[in-house]
Amino acid sequence: MELFTNQVLAGIATGAIYACMALAIVMIYQAIDHLNFAQGEMAMFSTFIAWQLMQWGVPYWGAFVITVAFSFAAGIIIERLLFKPLAKAPILTNVAGFIALYSIVNSVAGLIWDFTIKQFPTPFGSSPFLGSQLISTHQAGMIGVTLLLLLLLFFFFRFTRMGLAMRAAAALPESARLVGINTSWMIALGWGMAAAIGSIAGMMIAPVVFLEPNMMLGVLIYGFAAAVLGGLTSPFGAVIGGFLVGIFENLTGTYIPGVGNELKLPIALALIVIVLVVKPAGLFGRPIVKRV
Amino acid sequence: MSAAQEVVTEAPAIDAVPKRAMTLGYGTSLVMLAVLILVPLFVKNFIIFQLTMLLIYGLAVLALNILTGGSGQFSLGQSAFYAVGAYTSAILMETFNVNYALTLPVSGVICFAFGFLFGLPALRLSGIYLALATFALATAMPQLLKLNVFEPWTGGVQGLVVTKPDAPFGLPISQDMWLYYFTLVITIGIYIFSVNLLKSRSGRAFMAIRDNEIAASAMGIDVALYKTLAFGVSAGITGVAGALGAIAVQFVAPDSYTIQLAISLFLGMVVGGVGWLPGSIVGSAFIIFVPNIAEGISKGLSGAVFGVLLFLVIFLVPHGARQVAVLGQQLIGKFRKS
Amino acid sequence: MTAMLNIKDLRAYYGQVQALHGLEFGLNEGSLTTLLGANGAGKTTTLRAICNMVRSTGSIEFDGAALSGRSTENIVRLGIAHVPQGRGTFTTMTVEENLQLGAITRRDRAGIVSDIERMYDHFPVLKQRHTQQAGTLSGGEQQMLAVARALMLRPRLMLLDEPSFGLAPLIVRDLFRILGKINREEKVTILVVEQNAQLALELADKAYVIETGRIVMSGSAAEIASNEDIRKSYLGY
Known about the structure:
The structure holds 3 protein chains of 3 kinds.
Chain A: H1 2-32, H2 39-55, H3 60-83, H4 91-113, E1 128-129, E2 132-136, H5 137-159, H6 161-171, H7 173-178, H8 183-209, H9 216-230, H10 235-255, H11 261-278, E3 288-291
Antiparallel strand pairs in A: 1-2
Helix pairs in contact in A: 1-5, 1-8, 1-9, 1-10, 2-3, 2-4, 2-8, 2-9, 3-8, 5-6, 5-8, 6-8, 9-10, 9-11, 10-11
Chain B: E1 6-9, H1 26-38, H2 45-70, H3 78-96, H4 100-122, H5 127-146, H6 151-154, E2 160-161, H7 175-199, H8 201-211, H9 213-218, H10 223-249, E3 251-252, H11 259-272, H12 279-297, H13 302-316, H14 321-337
Helix pairs in contact in B: 2-7, 2-10, 2-11, 2-12, 3-4, 3-5, 3-10, 4-10, 7-8, 7-10, 8-10, 11-12, 12-13
Chain C: E1 3-14, E2 17-28, E3 32-36, H1 43-50, E4 55-62, E5 65-66, H2 72-77, E6 80-83, H3 95-102, H4 109-122, H5 124-128, H6 139-151, E7 157-161, H7 169-185, E8 189-194, H8 197-203, E9 206-211, E10 214-220, H9 221-226, H10 228-235
């Protein structure tokens, strides 16, 4: 039993990574109604920017703030330049665009910073948290940051005019235009916010998985899975989903024989798919009523 | 009243291709056929090998076109079926000494069953959720193939070497050339089958489901049957492609069939034009040749160059090669009138 | 009095299909006009063209300024509120959030708050349900919400597309009474597109009849209502 609880706790700790990523994913989904495969790469690139700033002597929190601001701007610019022209193109073409962006960002990062692993500092230290062997102070800090982000997002969407406008633009673009909302700019803003959140996720994750251009792939997949599991319309669900995915991953690794590292991912995904078959809108998503 | 639900009026996620435009006209088809038959006679073996791979990936993209462009189901898992087809063929040939030609129908049938079975739980999923499920399948496959318990059959991480067949009846042509024409005949056969499938009642059922699943069901179409059928057919064709691939490349290994392949096939479908069967070969050419071109332009930034080239293509022709073909048709029409 | 809204030679297209064939009419400030016609005549298309939601050519002028080339949201910001067919309610948001969205382009906080109170005076049922999800309201209530949302813009011109659709006659009467009140007291110019000609003619001062994308008849509402031939040929009663 103790092993079980330990693994669950450890799962929550690693799950904080996926929760953070899942928040960024839900953010973009709220804005543009589909998933951006390049989000992990954008987060990775932002993290490298932070790393580079620190290499140049900028202190951690300074680099953090600059990176988040830069990521916000970059997200908007990328959307305006690359995806606004595709706004009228079919969804699958847009997906191809995401894949192209992934390829570009990954390649450029590899060229600038090469593929050797780098250390990324954490502001929270990495000693055991409250004496526990399972959660380090960094992981606790990560959970804290994720929950804080969630709170901020909740506040933003519920209580600010901009948040209300973004929700409206995502829900019913035509009606939103009829109340005077510039829906095109709402999409750009959504991208900016998603990129900013992604950069925070990257900077939280890098101390654990180490910084290199391919660091986000696994995280992104688990993040997607977490977001889908939680229900793509619910930031709260995304965070819970993240923790659950972390727990799944740990438990399958511990209890199912013969499952090495490689099989953990497909099994976790398979479990999520099973949940989806039972609850197609995810655990906390709003049930979707389909009309002809 | 119950809690608010999200009411979604489903717009078709996949563009309907007008039926007339789903295939090429007779003239263009004959020209293409002539090119495909004659070109290999004049080029080196390695180019012939690449052309063979062009046809093979073309088949795989075609299969995806039937599934996504035809029945509207989004799949990122085709690499799994390709792998199963490849391994089936390799195991039959190397362990059981089955003739290479016979391994094709076996691969096809096994993959059809596999796809059909996968289609069953997939019925509850659509769009992003189906993408995730198929993605899971694609990531699982290389790992499954590496599992120790299967190693005596699959050769584990190293995979299996496959013997390339000689031309039959002692014909004086190279192995590559024979394999090319063999593949060409199979490709043409499958292409004709697919075109007819999409024109048939089943095809119309697929497209009705793609355009509006609820309406299709209300019209009495057995949605479950046709959706799983589409998965099965698509998987079966992909399996045959995989088998041919195994023979052409002369080995199978788990890391040849990663999610990268599934993503490439998806890109091939988009570049060729979703739902436009003739575009499959254009898409296939894109995924085979453009990465090489990108690497040629800049080894260090090959991924970035590829991404840029892909963006160029989708900016210029968001609907893929089909758009070019339609434009071409219109130009020819204007030409004829003047 | 120059017309507030002036439409000349309006042609509108859905892809290759032409829906309006040179439409012409004008609205005077403060008027309550109804646009009548059968299904498919082009009534909805006209409203959509005014808000640039459909491809069109021709001239549409609002207060002398041309509307062509402006995006829908910019046209709305000029003071034109459009209650679309099907109401376009934000069903996943609360009644109050829907009203706030109507005023999303305004900056006067105090004004918005007092306007919401005014909407609750016009439509008491909305006040009762103000924290409920809009999707849980009945058809009539959603229609009132849609009108209230449009009014939150403090529009100079309000366009309504078939507000009576799917509603019981008593509710429609009530709604139209309120529209009349708003037109008189708050000086909002109103253009109502309707299939239900009888009730619309009772409400409006002026009427236009549209058939296959052209205006075929215009006059005061009273004239049109009393002309039996027109009623039988174009309005079906």
